[in-house]
Amino acid sequence: MKIIALDIGGTAVKSGLVDNGVLKEHRETPTPASEGGQAVVALAKKLIAAYLPEGADGIGISTAGVVDSKSGSILFAEDCIRGYTGIQVKALLEDAFSLPTAVENDLNAAAVGEAAFGAGKGCKSLLCVGFGTSVGGAAVLDGRLYTGSHFGAGEFGHMVTHAGGLPCGCGQRGCFERYASASALVRQAQRLDPSLDSGRAIFRRLREPRVKAVVDSWLREIVYGLASLIHLWDPDCLALCGGVMQQSYPVEQLKALVPKSVMPAYRSVSIQAAQLGNQAGLLGAAELARRLAAGQLR
Asked: How far is residue 296's CA from residue 291's CA, in Å, rounded to a whole number?
C-alpha cells in the first residue's frame, strides 16, 4: 500500500512516499508559518499533488499542534503556526484528493512510527518520552495510540516530581520537565560554565568530574519520572526521544538505574533510544493512514 506522508513542523514540512512501510524518499520544504495556516495547507496540497503520479492509497499527516484525530482538525497551534487553530486539515485534503486521510499530532505520530517500525517493534505497549526544550510523550497501548479524552494524553512533563518546586510555564510548580528536560540540563551546566550551552557541548566534556556530576544529577531526575510512568502504565518498552538521547551515556545509565527504582514485577521493561530519528513522524503518519485505508482505524 502506498501512502503519501507529510510531517508539518513550525520550521519545515517533511514529505515522502511510504510504500508498504518503507520510506522511498524524503524531501524537506520550509514551512510558511508566518503566512498562516491556510498557506501551510496550500503547501501541503502542492506537496501531495507532486506524489500523485506515483499512485497513492491514502494520505498521512503528522503535524505540530493539538489535533482532534477523529475529525482531523487542529484544536490549538498558535504557538508555532499562526492561524492554524481550527483548520479542518482532514476534510480539506480529502475534498481535494478523494483519498482517506489520517491527521495526528507529531509526537503521537512519531510514537506510532516507533511502535510499528522502530524501538517498539514487536512490543505490546510502548511509551515514547521526549527530552528537549520540554518533556513530552505519547503512549501506544495494545498496538493502538492512546490520545485521551481531550486528545492531549502524553503530557508527561507536567507530572509533579517536586511538590512546591520550580515554577513551570503551565502554572504549576515542580513539574518533571523543569528538572528532566534537556533545557534543565543545560541550565544546570551553565551554572558551572556558561560555555556549556547545549547537550553536545556538555557531553563533549563528560570526562570532567564536575560536568559528569551535573549530568548524573539530571539523570536521577529522569529516573524519578520514568519510574512513575512505568508503575502507572506498565509498558513493555520505553523509547527515549530527543537529540540528547542519541548520546550513549544517558541511555546506558538509565537502563541500569531505572530497574533499581521500580518494583520487581516491572523490571523487565525494555529501555532504549528511539530508532527512527526525523523519519518517525512520517512513518507513523503513514501507518495511521494505512490502517484507515484498510478499515482498521476507529
From this structure: 5
List the one residue out of 194, 193, 224 whose CA is nearest residue 208: 193
Which sequence spans correspond to the domains of the chain?
A: 2-110, 123-275
* 57 Cα distance to chain centroid: 25
Q: Looking at the domain covering 123-275, what would its CATH class be?
A: alpha beta
Taking the C-alpha atoms of residue 121 and residue 283, their distance in angstroms, rounded to an integer, is: 13
Q: Which CATH architecture has domain 2-110?
A: 2-Layer Sandwich (3.30)
- Give the strand pairing for 2-8 and 22-23: unpaired
* pLDDT tens per residue across span 87-129: 999 999 999 999 999 999 999 999 999 999 999 999 999 999 9
Q: What is the DSSP string of 11-54?
A: SEEEEEEEETTEE---EEEE--GGG-HHHHHHHHHHHHHHHGGG
Contact 7, 285 (CB under 8 A): yes
- The CA distances from residue 196 to 183, 205, 233, in Å, are 11, 9, 35
